Each structure stands twice: as structure tokens, then as C-alpha cells.
């Protein structure tokens, strides 16, 4: 009886929206806002801009860089105007458009398409570029080169948050052109993670123009990959993240246990956090024992996808499975 009473108290407090726990490590993006060229003020030109912006949104939200060419998504593109919530003129003949993200997500789920949520890994970029001299330059956040601009544009197109080192960051950590072009990958990765990167891209470019050839090394968790091409680092990193975190398929019931929940505020924070995840549609409490809460979730993507996504937040640390294979997590304080 006491256990049920405690659970009821917790549920009541959660309904009052007590403060949430520690902030997640992932970066929140806005994939449902995009700009598109507006050729004139006609309705036809406006419709074309809405459809162009919808194609950009679908690339970001499904994680599929070819989504704009996918016939299965044509109904969303054709009816783009229906999903527009706001729009206004932007610089250089562009139209800024904000779509109804919840409605688009519902359509994608109902039609068996993947959905990549707003919370995404931030990727730190170390990029050394030759500039005609033997030393070359380290591309920093203050850089205005064509190469950096094209990489930033590609990342925006994919909905991939990038972190560039500031000149002060580079100086403080003794990172320069030579350190990136021929230094230790593990050392650069450690510095990048201390500066907020979840993933790390290390590039060596033969110039700083938009057409420069770049050799990339991408590090994420226990994965390491090599790519070649100006924008391949960004695109292949986005492909990997989407493959890991974009959820699709029918809803499946999954139970998890979260330990280390010491007070009502932490409980409410965890429940609110779980409910905020795109791939989770329902959260209920199955039991409470000491500092451990058992939740039942309705989730897309299955248990393995769930564990990867929750572990990436930095809020929950995976533990060894409990009885009957139930996934267990430790709350990070």
C-alpha cells in the first residue's frame, strides 16, 4: 500500500510541473524553420517558396539527404502551404517560413517515415586549410572564408549543429594549423569534447575556397570514420546520427528503470524529459522502490534505439540490464 501511495504522490507532484533536472547535453535545433527564394510577390511564387522550404525541412527531419526527391514524401511537398504557421520576407529575396512541426511529425509517423527529433549531437570542427604558404591557417569561428561558409550552409541544410573553435579557444589550448594537419587525433578529440562537442570532425583542406578538397576524420562515441570531399564531413556525420537516432515504425511498449531519483523534483524532471522525446508518445509509472522508478513507454525504434537516444542526452547513464532484460539507467546529478 505504501508503494502505491508514494507513486500517487509522485504523479500528483509531476502534474504540478515541478522544476526539471539538469540540462541535456544535446543541442536543441529548429528543423521546422527554413528560408527559400521568392522570385516575385505572386501566389505561384509564394507556393513555390513554401514547397522549396518544405523539401529542406524534410531532409532535416527524416535525416535522409535525398528526402526532397522521395516520391513517398510528395504529398507533404505538394500541400506545403497547409502546414505553414508563419512567414515573412527575409534578406536577399528570401522568404522565411515556419511550419507546424507537430502536424508534419504526425504525417511522417502515420506514413511509416523516420523522424529525427530536435535534440541532436553538436559536432566540433577542427579544420586546417592551406593558404599558399607552408604553414596554412586554422579555420576558427571568426573566419569568413568561402570554405567555412559552404560547410556552415551544408550543416544548416541537414539540421546539424556545429561548434567552431574561437581564436581564443585555439590559443588557450595550443591548437594551430600544424596541430590539426599533423597532430594527434585523440588529443584534438579530447579538447573538442571539453569545449562542448558530442561528435568531432577533423579536416585537412588544400585551400579555403568553396571547392577545396578536404580529408575528414569523424569521431563519435566509439566510431571513427574517414571521408573525402568538401562537404562529406558534414553530410556523412548527419547520415550517421540520423541512422542512430531517427525513429520509425509502429509504437512498441518498453519498460525502463531509472535509479538515483532522490526527490520529487528529480522524478518530475525525468518524466517531463521522457515525454519531450520525439520517439516516445506515452509515459506511465509502473512502480517505485527506494530511489528507483520503473516507467512504461510507448516508443518507436525499439529498445536499442531507445537506449542510444537516452544515453546521448547526458542525463541518463545506461546500466546493466535488470530482471527480464529491463533497461536500467542511472540519473546523472
- Taking pLDDT < 50 over at least 5 consecutive residues as the criterion, the unreliable ranges are 1-24
- Beta-strand percentage range: 25-35%
CATH topology of the largest domain: Rossmann fold
Number of strands: 16
Computed over alpha carbons, the radius of gyration is 22 Å
Main sheet overview? 6 strands, mixed
Number of helices: 11
Instruction: For the record, give the distance between the C-alpha atoms at the N and C termini, rounded to a whole number.
Output: 30 Å
**Topology as a string of helices (H) and strands (E):** HEEHHEEHEEEHEHHHEEEHEHEEHEE
- Globally, the shape reads flat
Supply the CATH class of the largest domain.
Answer: Alpha Beta
Residue-averaged pLDDT: 87
Label the structural class: alpha+beta
Name the helicity range.
25-40%
Looking at the overall shape, the CATH architecture of the largest domain is 3-Layer(aba) Sandwich
Number of structurally distinct domains: 3
Give structural attributes.
333 residues; Rossmann fold; 3 domains; five-stranded mixed beta sheet; flat
Question: Would you write up a description of this structure?
Answer:
Strand 9 (about 200-205) and strand 10 form a beta hairpin. This protein has 11 helices and 16 strands. It has 3 domains: about 1-25 and about 245-330, no CATH class; about 30-110, no CATH class; about 120-245, Rossmann fold. Mean pLDDT is about 85; it is low at about 1-25. The chain is α+β, with helices and mostly antiparallel strands. The strands form 4 sheets. Strands 6, 7, 8, 9, 10 and 11 form a 6-stranded mixed beta sheet that branches. The protein has a 5-stranded mixed beta sheet with strand order 13-14-12-16-15.
Amino acid at each position: 500500500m505504501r508503494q502505491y501511495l508514494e507513486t500517487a504522490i509522485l504523479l500528483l507532484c509531476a502534474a504540478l510541473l515541478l522544476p526539471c533536472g539538469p540540462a541535456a547535453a544535446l543541442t536543441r535545433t529548429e528543423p521546422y524553420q527554413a528560408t527559400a527564394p521568392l522570385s516575385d510577390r505572386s501566389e505561384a511564387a509564394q507556393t513555390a517558396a513554401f514547397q522549396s522550404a518544405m523539401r529542406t525541412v524534410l531532409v532535416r527531419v527524416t535525416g535522409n539527404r535525398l528526402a526532397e526527391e522521395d516520391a513517398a514524401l510528395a504529398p507533404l511537398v505538394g500541400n506545403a502551404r497547409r502546414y505553414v504557421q508563419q512567414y515573412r520576407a527575409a534578406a536577399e529575396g528570401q522568404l522565411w517560413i515556419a511550419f507546424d512541426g507537430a502536424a508534419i511529425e504526425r504525417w511522417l509517423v502515420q506514413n511509416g517515415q523516420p523522424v529525427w527529433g530536435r535534440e541532436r549531437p553538436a559536432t566540433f570542427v577542427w579544420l586546417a586549410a592551406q593558404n599558399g604558404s607552408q604553414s596554412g591557417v586554422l579555420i576558427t569561428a571568426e573566419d569568413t572564408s568561402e570554405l567555412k561558409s559552404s560547410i556552415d550552409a551544408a550543416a544548416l541544410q541537414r539540421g546539424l549543429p556545429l561548434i567552431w573553435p574561437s581564436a581564443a579557444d585555439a590559443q588557450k589550448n595550443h591548437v594551430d594549423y600544424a596541430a590539426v594537419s599533423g597532430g594527434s587525433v585523440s588529443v584534438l578529440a579530447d579538447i573538442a569534447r571539453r569545449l562542448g562537442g558530442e561528435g568531432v570532425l577533423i579536416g585537412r583542406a588544400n585551400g579555403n575556397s568553396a571547392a577545396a578538397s578536404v580529408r575528414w576524420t569523424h569521431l563519435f562515441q566509439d566510431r571513427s570514420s574517414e571521408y573525402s570531399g568538401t562537404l562529406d564531413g558534414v553530410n556523412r556525420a548527419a547520415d550517421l546520427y540520423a541512422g542512430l537516432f531517427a525513429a520509425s515504425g509502429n509504437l512498441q511498449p518498453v519498460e525502463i528503470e531509472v535509479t538515483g531519483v532522490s526527490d520529487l523534483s528529480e522524478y518530475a524532471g525525468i518524466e517531463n524529459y521522457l515525454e519531450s522525446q520525439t520517439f516516445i508518445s506515452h509515459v506511465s509509472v509502473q512502480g517505485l522502490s527506494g530511489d528507483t522508478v520503473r516507467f512504461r513507454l510507448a516508443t518507436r525504434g525499439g529498445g536499442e534505439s531507445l537506449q542510444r537516444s537516452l544515453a546521448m542526452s547526458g542525463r541518463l547513464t545506461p546500466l546493466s540490464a535488470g530482471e527480464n532484460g529491463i533497461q536500467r539507467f542511472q540519473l546523472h546529478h
